[in-house]
Amino acid sequence: MKGDWIKAWSKAPTSGDVATKQENCPPKQKRANGLARVAAGWLILQSVLLTPAFAAGEKANKTYSELLQQIEAGQVSKIIIDPAQQTAKVTLKDTKRSEYEVTLFDKYPEIYQKVRDSNKQGEKIQLDIQPTPDHSAALGLVANLLLILLVIGGLMMILRRSTQAGGQAMNFGKSRARFSMEAKTGILFDDVAGIEEAKEELQEVVTFLKKPERFTAVGARIPKGVLLIGPPGTGKTLLAKAIAGEAGVPFFSMSGSEFVEMFVGVGASRVRDLFRKAKENAPCLVFIDEIDAVGRQRGAGIGGGNDEREQTLNQLLTEMDGFEGNSGVIIIAATNRSDVLDTALLRPGRFDRQIMVDLPGYNGRLGILQVHARNKKLSADVSLETIARRTPGFSGADLANLMNEAAILTARRRKDSIGDQEIDDAIDRITIGLSLTPLLDSKKKRLIAYHEIGHALLSTLLKNADPLNKVTIIPRSGGTGGFSQQVFNEEMVDSGLYTRAWMLDRITIALGGRAAEAEVFGEAEITTGAASDIRYVADTARDMVARWGMSKLGPMALEGSSGEVFLGRDWMARSECSEEVSSEIDRCVRSMVLESYETARQLIRENRQLLDRLVDLLLDQETIEGEQFRQIVSQYTQLPEHQTADR
Ligand code: ADP
Ligand code: MG
Ligand code: ZN
User: Fold this and answer.
1) Which residues contact 37 (CB under 8 A, 6 or more apart)?
2) With a 6 A CB cut-off, is 388 part of the ligand 1 pocket?
3) Catalytic residue among 310, 452, 517, 559
4) Residue 199's pLDDT is what?
5) Superfamily for domain range 443-644
6) How much distance in Å is there from the Cα of 331 to the middle of ligand 1?
7) Which long-range contacts (CB under 8 A, 24 or more apart) does 633-639 make?
8) Does ligand 1 have an atom closer than 6 angstroms to the CB of 400?
9) Which residues surround ligand 2, an ion (CB under 5 A)?
10) CA distance 73 to 647
11) How many Cβ atoms sit within 10 Å of the Cβ of residue 344?
12) Quick one: what percent of the chain has pLDDT higher than 90?
C-alpha cells in the first residue's frame, strides 16, 4: 500500500498529463487545486489524476492553430511561452487586452516562424520565454518528503520498542541497577529471634546509623561492612532489614547474582550506580545478598577466570575503599559460604566484621516460634516448647513456614484455633511432603508396608537407635510411598556430636527396608524404592571411614568434605591419599555396609511372625504410632532398655 503511494507521487509532478490540467487556472487557484489534489491523492488512486477528462482541459477556449491564425491576422500583442508547462500565454491587441492560454505540443516552431514573419511586416509581437513556478512539482516533493519522514519515523518507533523489549543488547552501557529501595522496612529487632549474639553485635551498627557523632567524637572508625554468614533461611535478610528498621534509615538491597550479566563491565557499572544512589541517601544501609556470586576467590574455579565477575568484584572493592568510613553508608552482605570469598573482601576496612548466623538451637527455635505465633490463634493444648523440641535442624524460615502451614490446615478443617494435630501434620508436610490419598490394596502396597515396617522394627529393636515416632503407608508428594520416622534425638542433633554406635545403627535401620523386601519377597523381587536409603548408607559409611576415623583404618581424615567441586582449590586438594589407601577405604566401607545389612536381615528373619503381624496392622490402619508399635513388639520380644522406659 505504502509503495503504491510513493510511486504515485513521484510520478505526478513529471507527468505531462497532469500539467495540462492547470492550463487555464489563475496561479492562486492553481495552488488550491494542487493542494486538493495532494489531499485527494492519499485517498484516490493515481489513475484518477490521469483521466482524459482532466487532460482535455475544459477551459481551453483556443487551440494552437487558432493562435497561429491570430498571429497572422495581427491580433496578438504578446506571447509568453512556458516550456516547463508546455503552455503559451497570449495577450491580444484588442482594447480589453484579453488573455488566454494555449496548450503547446512538443515542438512549436510555427509560433517562432509566424511571429518572426509578422514582425518583419511591421507588427510588434513580444515573444518571451518564461517558466511559471511549478507548484505541483513543489507540492509533489513536499508530499514525498512527508511520506519518507513518516516511514522513517515509523521504523524508528518500531526499532526503539524492540530495543526496549529486547533489553540490554542495545543499551548495556547504561546499566539499570536492579536494586530495590525501601524507605522504611518496618521490621524491628523484636521480630528477629534466636540469634541473640548477632543481634547484640549489630546493635552497634544501629547506634552508628542513628548517632554517628557518638563514634566520630572519640575518633572511632566505623566498620564499613558487616558480613552475615549462615545457612539459608536463618534470618540474614530479616536481620539486615531490622537494622535499617531500628535505625529508621532507607534499605537498599541487591543480590550478588544481579551484578553479574552477560556483558563485561555491566556488573561494575551496577556497583557504581548502587553506591552513588546510596551516598545520595546517606545515612542508609546497603544489603548485598549472596555476595559469593561476585565475591568468589579470584582466579579460582574450574571454568577458568571469569573476567566479568572479577571486574565487578574489583569495582566493589574500589567503592568500599573510596567512601569514607564515616559517610553514613553501611554495607551488610550475606552469604552461606564464607570459605569461598576472596580474601580481599575480608580484610579490615571492608567486610571486617563477620557474624555467624547459625541454625537456631532449642531456645532459638522457641523464640522464633513465639514471634510467629504472635498473630496466630493457638489452642490451649499446643505447647511451643514441644514443637521446638521436635524440630531440631529447622531454620527460622522453616519454623515460620511450619506455623503458617498449621494455620492453613486449621482453616481448611474449619477449626477456630491451631491444635496439636495441625502442628503435627504441618511438620510432616514440611519434612516429608504433602500427604496423598492412600493406595488401593495391591502387591505394591504390601511391599511398601514390609519395607517401612522393616525400618520401624529395626529402630525398635536396635540398642542405640532412637525410638520410633510413627510408621505410615500414606503416600506423600515427591514419590514417597510411606515412611518410618524416629523421634528426633535432640541432644545429638543440637550438639552436632554423633556417636559411632548411633551411626552404625542408623545404617542398619536404613538397610532394614531392603532387608525386609529381600526376606519376604526374595532377592529377585527387591525394588528401586530403597534408592535413597542406599545412598544414605553409602555416604554415611564413607564419611565414617574416611572423614571421622571410625573404622579399623584408624583415626585419620583421608578425604576432604565432598561437594564444592566448583572451586579450583578444593578440587585440586581432594584426593589426599594414595591409590592403595583409596581401595582400602572402599573395602572398609563395603565390609561395614555388608555387616550392617547382615544384621538387618538376621533380625528380620528372627522376627518374621512379628513382622507379618505388624504389616497386617499397618495395611489396616495405614499409620501406627510409636507407642502402639512398641506395645505389640513387646508381646513378642524383649525391648531394649531405653525403649521401654519413659516412652
Ligand atoms: P536468609 O536471608 O538467611 O536466607 P530470611 O531472612 O530471608 O533468611 O528468612 C526468611 C523468613 O524466615 C523471614 O522472613 C522470617 O519470617 C523467617 N525467619 C528466619 N529467621 C528468623 C528469625 N531468626 N526470627 C524470626 N523469623 C525468622
Ligand atoms: Mg536472604
Ligand atoms: Zn526405606
Assistant:
1) 49, 136, 139
2) no
3) 452
4) 86
5) Peptidase M41 (1.20.58.760)
6) 19
7) 633/457, 633/460, 633/461, 636/607, 636/609, 636/610, 637/461, 637/607, 637/610, 639/460, 639/461
8) yes
9) 237
10) 142
11) 16
12) 26
Angle at 20 between CA 15 and CA 22, to 5 degrees: 110
The best mutation among 192, 238, 355, 395 to test binding of ligand 1, ranked by most ligand atoms within 8 Å of the C-beta, falls on 238
**Tens of pLDDT along 435-491?**
777 777 788 889 999 999 999 999 999 999 999 999 999 888 777 788 898 887 777
Class of the domain covering 362-431: mainly alpha
Ligand 3 center from residue 403 Cα (angstroms):
28
CB atoms within 10 A of CB 144: 16
> Mind listing the pLDDT tens digit for each residue in 379-408?
988 899 888 888 888 899 999 999 999 999
**Max CA distance (Å), the chain:** 154
Beta carbons of 473 and 452 less than 8 angstroms apart: yes
CATH node for 56-129: 3.30.720.210
Atom of ligand 1 nearest to the CA of 357: 3
d(CA 239, ligand 3 centre) in Å = 39
How high is the pLDDT of residue 103? Answer: 82
Architecture per CATH, domain 178-356, reads as 3-Layer(aba) Sandwich (3.40)
For ligand 1, say whether the CB of 282 is within 6 Å of any of its atoms: no
Domains of the chain by residue range: 1-51+142-161, 56-129, 178-356, 362-431, 443-644
Q: What is the pLDDT of residue 178?
A: 66
Express as a percent the part of the chain with pLDDT over 70.
80
User: How many Å lie between the centroid of ligand 3 and the Cα of residue 459?
Assistant: 12
H/E stretch holding 449: helix 443-461
Annotation says 200 is catalytic: no
**The pLDDT value given to residue 618:** 93
Residue 361 CA: which ligand is closest?
1
Q: Do domains 178-356 and 443-644 have the same CATH topology?
A: no
pLDDT tens for 549-604 read 888 888 877 766 544 444 444 444 455 677 888 888 899 999 999 999 999 999 99
pLDDT per residue over 29-43, tens digit each? 444 455 455 444 444
Q: Whose CA is nearest to atom 14 of ligand 1?
A: 238
Is there an atom of ligand 1 within 6 Å of 368 CB? yes
